[in-house]
Amino acid sequence: MDNEAALVAALRRGDEAAFRALIEMYNPMLVRVARMYVSTQAVAEEVAQETWLAVLEGIDRFEGRSSFKTWLFRILTNRAKTRGIREGRSLPFSSLEPDEPAVEPERFHGGDHNWPGHWSAPPQGFPEERLLAGETRDVIEQAIAALPPTQRAVISLRDIEGWSAEEVCNALTLSETNQRVLLHRARSAVRKALEEYLEES
Asked: Which of 180, 192, 182, 198 is nearest to 121 (CA)?
């Protein structure tokens, strides 16, 4: 169903076909996002199941102040974070993001240069045929998997799932500025991994 209001109304009526369609549409993504917060795939699947139960129990309280998708993923992330804390995997938010620059300072001109702060070694363009190769995709996936959890969540939702910045901020309860910083750091780390891989090969 394209019409979200109709979908919510169908869920409120107990329409099983609408619920099945939602599960088919969102469950794989729910499990992927949950996996960022918990230690195993099995636990991520449990968190996704708990989220669907919470949706069924809470659909009458859904007020439509955000999109249904945002509401769904907010339920998921809250449950996944709680489960991650119970597992002892989660760390305080402040410790998840290293206090280091996203790009090495040596890649920019210093204060004694005519153009301080500008690139001294700008990022190079990547040959498209190399980027489409399976081996290169593996490098990208490994670089994303190595990111801190919140960076991994933001880049996965923005660049893989195609979410807007607003949707990510709402679903992960991030400020717009924080979301932008996390995305920049994540993209910079992935780009660095790609540059190193392409230089080696």
From this structure: 192
